[in-house]
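Q: What residues go here?
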């Protein structure tokens, strides 16, 4: 929609409530004091701001324009999905979006033209006078390795143009990603030689390199192993339990729990030797502890010669008698809390205390991080 129109153009549209001749449109504009400006170019006269027209005429004009086929459809851009962006691309996109949003605010709320808004933003960024939240986004938006904190009008206009061509999709503001390096031809042979339980070094792998294949240099192997993930690098060199430390996990959310909802327990061998109460020789006793998952409070403990059914029961007795009874008891898969004394449906400890008992999977200490860290 044009912002300014001549009387002849308005008359030719035959809008409701408006005359259909140029002279009468000019007369009506004079009576209702429409906002106007002198027309530049041949013929002279005045142009009237479309927003000064009566409301009915503006609605009819907008409806007619919506139904028209645009003269030029926007090109179909090959934009990446936001979920496919790497972390640095997403951070840059968010920073540029925030800076352009401030320009939009100055245009819409401040009444500035887009050009003046861009100049104001660039000057304020150069002088460090932007809001602290925006100022720290300037080097991120620049996406430069030197961490430049300056902006230029040309750069900001390029961002505005990219956003406009993408019909407002901010993913167009993300910088182009660095193409992934191709997998080198020696990768398969290296994996066969390197990923072994004996954990050979790179020098040993080069010594065992097949004679009929091109042997890479030591630095080539080092750079490639640095690029691959830790899980890929250690597969075959470590067992399933040791590989757990390199695998992704989902942290459990405890915000919806309450004190006493879940008790988590585990037994640990004491990290020092003491005199055995029977024979006096040095030994390491077993300490069983229970924590409240929501508050992380140490609610109960026991000490025994070794972890067994009654040492776990004694720690829970201490927790119940000094704090509260839990709804859920979470323990490892050991025999100390997985037996008939605990699990009998009629006289088992869990049934008599009306608690639900769960066990973590074998060899998964990460599932009991709360008590393991303790």
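A:
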């Amino acid at each position: 929609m044009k912002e300014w129109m001549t009387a002849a153009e308005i008359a030719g549209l035959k809008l409701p409530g408006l005359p259909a001749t140029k002279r009468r449109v000019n007369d009506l504009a004079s009576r209702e004091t429409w906002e106007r400006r002198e027309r530049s170019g041949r013929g002279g006269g005045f142009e009237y701001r479309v927003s000064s027209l009566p409301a009915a005429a503006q609605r009819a004009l907008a409806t007619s324009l919506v139904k028209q086929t645009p003269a030029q459809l926007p090109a179909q851009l090959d934009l990446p999905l936001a979920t496919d962006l790497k972390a640095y691309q997403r951070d840059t996109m968010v920073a540029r979006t925030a800076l352009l949003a401030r320009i939009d605010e100055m245009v819409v709320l401040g009444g500035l033209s887009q050009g003046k808004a861009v100049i104001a933003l660039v000057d304020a960024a150069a002088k460090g006078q932007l809001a602290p939240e925006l100022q720290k986004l300037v080097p991120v938006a620049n996406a430069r390795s030197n961490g430049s904190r300056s902006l230029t009008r040309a750069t900001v206009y390029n961002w505005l143009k990219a956003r406009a061509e993408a019909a407002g999709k901010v993913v167009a503001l993300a910088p182009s990603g660095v193409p992934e390096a191709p997998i080198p031809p020696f990768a398969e042979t290296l994996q066969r030689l390197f990923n072994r339980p004996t954990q050979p070094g790179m020098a040993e792998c080069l010594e065992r390199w097949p004679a009929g294949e091109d042997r890479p240099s030591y630095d080539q192997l080092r750079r490639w192993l640095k690029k691959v993930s830790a899980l890929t690098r250690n597969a075959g060199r470590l067992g399933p339990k040791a590989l757990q430390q390199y695998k992704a996990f989902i942290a459990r959310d405890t915000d919806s729990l309450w004190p006493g909802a879940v008790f988590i327990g585990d037994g640990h061998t004491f990290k020092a030797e003491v005199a055995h109460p029977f024979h006096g020789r040095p030994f390491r006793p077993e300490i069983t502890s229970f924590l409240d998952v929501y508050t992380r409070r140490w609610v109960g403990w026991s000490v025994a010669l070794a972890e067994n059914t009654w040492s776990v029961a004694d720690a829970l007795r201490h927790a119940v008698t000094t704090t509260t009874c839990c709804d859920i008891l979470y323990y490892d898969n050991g025999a100390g809390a997985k037996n008939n004394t605990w699990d009998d449906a009629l006289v088992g400890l869990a049934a008599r205390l009306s608690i639900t008992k769960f066990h973590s999977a074998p060899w998964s200490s990460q599932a009991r991080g709360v008590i393991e860290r303790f």
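A: Context that may help when evaluating the design: The two ends are 67 Å apart (CA to CA). DSSP finds 17 helices and ten strands in the chain.
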